[in-house]
From TrEMBL:
It holds the Pfam family K-box. GO terms for cellular component: nucleus. Residues 1-45 form the K-box domain. This is MADS-box protein-like protein. It comes from the Eukaryota. GO terms for molecular function: DNA-binding transcription factor activity.
Amino acid sequence: KGINKIRSKKTELLYAEIEYMQKKEIELQNDNMYLRNKIADNERVRQQQMNMLPSTRNQFEVMPPFDSRSFPQVNLLTGNSLPSN
């Protein structure tokens, strides 16, 4: 008789735990859907903002590539790279 009481109490606790976990799962799924929708909205807004900006890519395509040979060489490793007065 005592074992049956223990088993029924254990079963009751397991069912309560399962019910709690099922509710928690539904809450997490709802939170997940909310966050997915929020991310999609933010991406949509960001895409609209990017479409409104003038295209700067063309400006950079027209710019000539950087040529380091047109600048004087500065040796940063030596302390006497600056002219002394």
